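User: Thanks for the earlier help. One more: Glucose-6-phosphate isomerase. Can you show the sequence and predicted structure together?

Assistant: Of course, both are below.
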Amino acid sequence: MTKRYEDLSWKESMRLKLDVNNMFAATIGEEHGYTKKDIDAMQERVTNGHQAIKEAKAAGNLDWMDLPYNHKEIAKEIKEFAEENREKYDNFVVFGIGGSALGNIAVQTALNDPYYNLKKEARNGCPRLFIPDNVDPTRLKSLLDMLDLEKTMFNIISKSGGTAEPMSQFLTARAAVIKELGEDAVADHFIATTSKDSGDLIKIAKEEGIKTFYIPKTVGGRFSVLSPVGLVSAAFTGVDIEELLAGAEYMDQICDTDDVWKNPAYLNAVLQYLADQDGKPMSVMMPYSHVLKDVADWYRQMWAESLGKKFNRQGEVVNVGPTPIKALGATDQHSQAQLYMEGPYDKVVTFLEVEKFRETLEIARGYEDIDGVSYLGGHTFNELITTEKKATELALIDNNRLNCTVTFPEVNAFTLGQFFYMYEMTTALIGELYNINAFDQPGVELGKQYAYGVLGREGYDHMKEQFDARPKKDENLIL
């Protein structure tokens, strides 16, 4: 049977749109807005960056760019495994941290029913999904106490197998399973998503007979949502993961050009980069759709961890990086918008807008004699949230504030795959413009190493010594 994403006309109807009108002087004024000349002046740097990305991909350093292609068969394997096993379990738990959790959460929130875990009919035979994404003891104990372990599958995600958060969760859940069900039950209740050829988790998985899925060598956590890291939980909860990859492939084809005016990822990167250089380092992502709220969380990690760097590629101290901020429309019109409208001129707002929601809900009529209430009746909530987005957009324009919009024709696996890939490409190019490595995270690693030392991991004694020698706190400054 032909899949809808194999239909060219359907794919084109589902193409994301990037509207950057409100980044230009013609709309928001010359003091803050840009001109076509400003963008054209960046073309040579874009071309050089595009070439550098291509060369890095060819050298095998950007495996995430190949995922839409080389993971088609892997997606089929994951789908078959999920279909064979999902009805055996009432609960599917992901133990991961950062990029090993945020992508899973974003896919689930965007594509499944908002109350998926609470509505049996919405799950259609699929298990409930839980992603703790932290090691808060109260939260984790409460989850483990609630679960029927005999009906629970745990997916442990760690490339190295040494990441403290998921591995501590694994140790604790494994002990609980063994206590309740016996040691022979471990293989039936755990999946390991990890490196194929190295690390502690693959060693454990082989010893325990745990089903494994592999993370490609150069796919970092924040770029891993289209790998088994994100695909396994999506498949277990009924998401069409093949369509998700097809959306990413479609966006890759759109972005396969160095022409900044034809490449939405590159145009977005250039404008965001110019804004930062002009004293606007705050990058707000504001979905006007609740199902996209965790996509903004995914973006926040992508932007912060990729672009916040102390050194450039020549080893010079540069301390660069925009600050990503997540907001939610219409909620944050009543929380953040005042600052965006009248505070410092240091922000760029990116709206996420949905043309067609999965549901249409009419606002009931009532109180016809009260004008301040009755005007709402007969309209739809779809109209209301879209109108509020456009009104906020106009208010930003009136205040000469930079903003742009990414429009989803509808939120489905294909459009979400496009979004993930477009922002991965945006990140790759803006990294080239900053002349930094957008694919490492030395600041994050330093904090991990201190924790390893304090907790007694072999080989990190020197980090414990540094931790113990940290500056003493002045008790007079603790009130």
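User: Great, one quick takeaway?

Assistant: The chain has 22 helices and twelve strands.
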